[in-house]
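Researcher: Next entry in the queue.
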Amino acid sequence: MDVRGKIGLAVVVMLALAGAGCSSSKSKSEEPAPNRNVSAGGANGPGIDLNCVYESIQNPTESFHYSYNKQSSNPVKEEADITPQTIDGSFTNGGGTQPVHGTRADQQSWRGALAGLMGISGMSSTIALVHSGNALKREGNEKMNGYDTTRYSIDTARGDSAEQGLFRATLGSGGFEKGDAWVTDKGCPVKIELDTESHNNDGSVDKIHYSEAMVRK
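Model: Structure for this entry, 217 residues:
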């Protein structure tokens, strides 16, 4: 099983375990939306809600600069200046760099621009792996990129014995996730710096560095 498949399986296991602790009497109206990304933190604070990034880009209520960078064997880079009326930026991957432009008044161009800024979805399983437990630690309140935020440190080395078993199953022996995230009171990450390393059964090692930022103008 490749790394993506192993992480996906781990996410299913974690969500199942989390669901087992919930009351079976909960109504459907109380269930979270199925397409919403897993948030990290829970009682530990607002957590890390990647869906908030999507919402901020799709329906911006203020002007900000957005960036996402995945450094790996399949790199992705996105940059955009976003306002409630316009999106202007670029998308870069192995195929080269493409401009990203949209205006709210032209829904076709707006949807096209949004499609060029969805690379952060590649972080979903990575964040889900540390969505609860000892890997995520609230470090305090800080000002970051023009926002009042809570800073979390992320380090899979802090996991207990059960968590370490899960991390080994998904990242391989010696694999890890380590970094920091700064989020608003809604869990919206305005800065993420995260390194991951996966050790595969064939002896190969996959290294990825993720960076994401929203800078208020």
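Model: The CA atoms of residues 45 and 114 lie 29 Å apart.
Researcher: Noted, moving on.
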